[in-house]
Amino acid sequence: MPETTVVLSEEVREAVAARRPVVALESTIIAHGLPRPRNLAVAGELEALVREGGAVPATIAVLDGVARIGLDKAGLERVAADPAVRKLGHRDLAPALATGASGATTVSATAFLAARAGIGVFATGGLGGVHRGWTDTQDESADLRLLARTRIAVVCAGVKSILDVPATLQRLETLGVGVLGYRTDRFPGWPGCTCRAICSSHRPARRRRAPRWPRRRSGVSR
């Protein structure tokens, strides 16, 4: 991606450069997941929770053909209020940037852009996964393959319960995506559904203990 198409906010840019904690947040929940005006209030609440935890929030969206890593007040308000804001998955990013479109990012698009910006943690509600009746429809969320090839830790409440939760867990295993439960040995389905046992931890994972792989950060304007 050209440098002009991916831009970090000043706060996020400085935090990444100083290796301070940054948490990426998706914007689809703001534009398409909640009714107005509650959606804007929730966007502010999510960013406030990240700050309370000692990190810098980086809500991500594409505005006028530019991927914004960290939205200001005006950007959040636009995503929350503009009915023309599209829903963008990873596959939709290139045409959106090329045509100057605006869109809210899903899990796959948010994870992709966050990783390119050097952000290592992404928080969301429920992931996409394998749909029920997969043997007939072959319907599987793009989230899973994207996470399998993206160096980012996703903190979430499992996968959406309308999906085939056991099949999604099996698919994550097949793709080599590590799954760790915090204070639980059950894989959650968001909301309210649980699945078989998984690896568990009773304290927050320390990312510094994980191997550090070289990052390629080309195409990002800081």
Describe this structure in words.
By secondary structure, the chain is an alpha/beta fold. It has a domain at 3-124: Indigoidine synthase domain (Indigoidine synthase fold, 3-Layer(aba) Sandwich), CATH 3.40.1790.10. Helix content is 35%, strand content 22%. It is built from nine helices and 13 strands. Strand 5, helix 5 and strand 6 (103-105) form a beta-alpha-beta unit. It is globular and about 45 Å long. The model is unreliable at 207-219 (pLDDT under 50).
> Can you tell me the residue ranges where pLDDT is under 50 for at least 5 consecutive residues?
207-219
- Percentage beta strand: 15-25%
Q: For the report, how would you describe the main beta sheet?
A: 8 strands, mixed
Helical residues, percent: 25-40%
The CATH topology of one domain: Indigoidine synthase fold
Rg over CA atoms: 17 Å
Provide the residue-averaged pLDDT: 86
* CATH class assignment of one domain: Alpha Beta
Along the chain, the helix and strand elements come as EHEHHEEHEHEHEHHEEHEEEE
Structural class: alpha/beta
Q: So, the CATH homologous superfamily of one domain?
A: Indigoidine synthase domain
Tally of DSSP helical segments: 9
Whole-Å distance between the termini? 14 Å
Sum up the overall morphology in one term.
globular
Say how many strands there are.
Answer: 13
By CATH, the architecture of one domain is named 3-Layer(aba) Sandwich
What can be said about this structure in brief?
The chain is α/β, with parallel strands linked by helices. The chain has nine helices and 13 strands. It has a domain at 3-124: Indigoidine synthase fold (3-Layer(aba) Sandwich), CATH 3.40.1790.10.
